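Hi team,

As requested, here is the filled-out complex form for the fe (ii) ion run. I kept the field names the same as last time so the parser does not choke. Let me know if anything looks off before we queue the next batch.

— J.
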Amino acid sequence: MLSLTDIRNDAEITQLIGSANHVLKEIGYTDHGPRHTGYVSRVTADILKALGYDERTVELGAIAGWMHDVGNAINRLNHGITGAQMVYFLLTARGMAYEEVCKIVSAIGNHEEGTGRVVSEISAALILADKSDAHRTRVRRNQYNENDIHDRVNYAISHSFLAVDKEEGVITFELEMGETSSIIEFLQIYLSRMRMCEEAAAYLNCVFRLVINGMTVNQTREFAQNKGVVIDE
Ligand SMILES: [Fe+2]
Ligand SMILES: [Fe+2]
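And here is what came back:
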């Protein structure tokens, strides 16, 4: 069976990840190379593992995470869909079972906000992992541009962590933000991604909590009441 290690050692796939990162660098995006795909691969797998999914599902999640952005090697626009088509042929050519390939491509083809919807547990975990990669290390070395909101927001984030509590049914995305940006700027570019994370967490029977500088910023009334928090009328 095809493993994450096989995929990571594959020259053709490595080339595509490098090219995708190059294209995005040229048009001014933050890091989408092995740092990003490695994070997404690891966190997708961690989420599935923490929620008790079987080993092969965890491995398929890790492979989807590693390959999810290869469509950018062609064009940023609709890269989830073009990437899924490429990945279908890459994985079937390497002998992966069709059923497994389909699980991976449906997750990749649905990871972008705008066109993507949560379609499976792998898709949900991939969305949570991809949208939670916000950190100062994502700003390209020696390329910090204070006029770019993505750079400002990412650079301001000195700590970010996605925690899964299966017992409580809560997935918490925790951020520490410094002075180069603000919560409102974070929400300006991340709001639709955070909404997608709420949808993804709900698919996994969890509630998504976004905590910035110690404050839960997406507390719902239902969630607060379930946790016994009294809200003044
Ligand atoms: Fe993407
Ligand atoms: Fe991504």
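Two things worth flagging: The chain is about 55% helix and 10% strand. The chain has a mean pLDDT of 94.

Thanks,
J.
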